[in-house]
Amino acid sequence: MPGLDDSLLVGLAIAALFAGFIDAVVGGGGLIQIPALFNALPTEIPATLFGTNKFASIFGTANAAWGYARRVRMPWRTTLPAAVAAFACSYVGAMAVAWLPPAMLRPLILLLLIVAAAYTFGHRDFGALHQPQHTGRREFVYALVLGGAIGFYDGFFGPGTGSFLIFLFIRFFGFDFLHASAASKVVNVATNLAALGFFIPHGHLLPLLAVLMAGCNVLGSLLGTHLALRHGSGFVRKAFLCVVGVFILKFAHDTFV
């Protein structure tokens, strides 16, 4: 691949593998994959790196969604409306970048991450039991609102989308961590598809690198999904707190340093 030696390719492959693993469990793989791409290809257009990241991620996320769907009773009545709304609103979020710099959101996102981590840590039973709280029209409307809000955020800013989805599915729908993680994968596939609908037609993609990273991302997602299904909600809860903790440190550094 032009501009990349073997050591950089290996590094990107490992980053994609680890990103797929993290994404399959609790989301947040972009925290690994995006910096790896920017470090390896500092002269490349950012939109092309984001498009390559999305292409690699969508295969791992779709594989994780399929893996969960085969073993977990998926809450489709909540998940599908959320996915449709997320797909539509991610376009709106992408357009909003021209109106408001995403960096202005960093302090707010940092605060929300701290609240999510503190709430999860302070409530030992949070996400331990799967007890869906809504049915019928209320479930549908709440799913649209949640999906729309997260879709807008993913299109506008992006980092931590999967982790926010898991927290919101538990907090507002009564899912356990395992079902929330499974549902979040479907919504993430929708937002990634929406983003690729822009990136690919505009040529913002490195095809050969994207295919290589996609394969590694899928391998990582297979391992992450296997561990999450084997060890259940308790394992996903611990992973969630670890990943959100890392996000808090990163956002604090980017905001104040």
TrEMBL record:
Database matches in Pfam families: TauE
Q: What is its main location?
A: membrane
Entry membrane topology: Multi-pass membrane protein
Q: Which UniProt keywords apply?
A: Cell membrane, Membrane, Transmembrane, Transmembrane helix, Transport
Q: What's any one GO cellular component for it?
A: plasma membrane
Per UniProt, subcellular location reads as: Cell membrane
Q: Which residues cross the membrane?
A: 80-99, 105-122, 143-170, 208-229, 235-252
Q: Which InterPro entries match?
A: TM_pro_TauE-like (IPR002781), TSUP (IPR052017)
So which residues are the signal peptide here? none
Q: Which family does it belong to?
A: Belongs to the 4-toluene sulfonate uptake permease (TSUP) (TC 2.A.102) family.
| Protein name in the entry | Probable membrane transporter protein
Q: What is the lineage of its organism?
A: Bacteria, Pseudomonadati, Pseudomonadota, Betaproteobacteria, Candidatus Accumulibacter
